[in-house]
Specification:
391 residues; alpha/beta; Aminopeptidase; 11-stranded mixed beta sheet; 9 helices; 13 strands; 27% helix; globular; binds zinc ion
């Protein structure tokens, strides 16, 4: 994530170690107008439940929609009943085939996943700042992992280079995204982007910012989802994208939507994983405010997920820092008119600090978040509407 989140640093200034790109995040002085955009093809009532039933999902026990109890310093629930709501996790999901197999594969992969997270957030990666030796190392690691997962390059390789500039200094800076695909069964004729960013803040004042949660957790989680789904084609073709230069102001995702590898009109949604490990039992889900048709899908997943999923952090009228719509790469898709679902954790004391280390991540919390992420992807793939005509 970029910029200050829900809680300003003590004294009200930018957090130590934050990049000087905060001007582009949503703020109360620069509100982003709400732009609800229904899906091009309206979700039919009950379509999701039917799809879930077809996939063997049992009728979810009707969990109580509980208003989230106000918490100190949290201000995004001041306007019930439209504010974020909590769906308590219901029961252990019992997805049937074909959805159960990817979930089982994910669970069986936990040792590799944690090892990958340890590697990507190790000192050897030197904080993965865009354009540095550490970023090159991180990219080489991730590219090999994408290849091993069967995520196919769209061209000669997974790397897609771009340049970005930061006024007033207009010298171009290089960045490199990694992009690959897992083919779907063709039923949907469209793409779902699964994204995360691999860059972080680098080395500052001799301290390495390892960014284990931000966003090695998402970058490695993306790999885990790809491995879990290998051999289980979904309705949508999946585009897996490891973005660079997110911490410089969403530069990689801006470049992606400006020069997309597939027509933007064929991208149904971006599922963005950014800071998904430090849940403390709660994973935030943003995107339903901008695309209300997503809400029933997200709530159905919340009823089954092994972590409490809370919908919110996507209201433009929220106090500064509470609306995360433009604070991650999903913001670039949003600005391009593409629905997004962002998954991520609440602010924590190690956010954008050199203490965001692997050792502070609870493996169980992380795996539960990835399981929820995979369930979200499976549900979105099932529920998103077919195009009117095959394309
Ligand atoms: Zn960040």
């Amino acid at each position: 994530m970029v910029g200050p989140r829900a809680h300003p640093a003590p004294g009200g200034g930018p957090r130590p170690g934050c990049p000087a790109t905060h001007g582009m995040v949503a703020s109360s002085a620069m509100p982003i107008a709400p732009r609800p955009r229904p899906f091009p093809h309206a979700l039919r009532s009950g379509a999701l439940l039917a799809a879930l039933a077809c996939a063997g999902w049992p009728p979810a026990p009707r969990t109580v929609l509980a208003s989230r109890a106000p918490q100190t310093g949290r201000s995004d629930l001041r306007s019930p009943p439209r504010g974020p709501r909590t769906l308590q996790a219901g029961h252990a999901p019992t997805l049937d085939l074909p959805s159960r197999e990817p979930l089982s594969a994910l669970a069986a992969d936990s040792a590799v996943i944690l090892d990958d997270l340890r590697t990507l957030s190790s000192d050897a990666m030197e904080g993965r700042r865009t354009g540095t030796r550490g970023a090159v190392r991180a990219r080489a690691f991730l590219e090999a992992r994408l290849r091993a997962a069967g995520v196919h390059p769209l061209g000669d390789g997974h790397e897609r280079a771009f340049t970005w500039t930061r006024p007033p200094e207009m010298a171009p800076h290089p960045g490199v995204n990694l992009v690959g695909s897992l083919a779907g069964d063709g039923a949907a004729g469209r793409f779902i982007v699964v994204s995360a960013h691999y860059d972080h803040l680098g080395i500052r004042n001799g301290q390495i910012y390892n960014g284990a949660d931000d966003d090695a957790s998402g970058a490695v989680g993306l790999l885990a989802l790809a491995r879990a789904l290998r051999g289980h084609p979904l309705r949508h073709t999946l585009l897996f994208v490891e973005f660079d230069a997110e911490e410089e102001g969403l530069r990689g995702s801006r470049a992606f939507v400006a020069d997309p590898p597939v027509p933007l009109a064929r991208i149904a949604l971006d599922l963005n994983l950014d800071m998904v490990s430090r849940t403390a039992g709660v994973l935030w889900v943003a995107g339903a405010h901008e695309t209300p048709a997503l809400r029933p899908i997200l709530e159905e997943v919340a009823a089954l997920a092994p972590v409490a999923l809370r919908l919110g952090h996507d209201r433009p009228e929220a106090p500064e820092g509470d609306d995360w719509t433009e604070q991650g790469d999903h913001g670039s898709f949003h600005d391009a008119g593409i629905p997004f679902v962002y998954l991520g954790v609440e602010d924590h004391p190690d956010y954008h600090r050199p203490t965001d280390d692997f050792e502070r991540i609870d493996p169980g919390e992380y795996m539960n978040a990835l399981r929820a992420s995979l369930m979200m992807l499976l549900a979105l793939d099932q529920a998103l509407p077919l195009p009117a005509a095959a394309s």
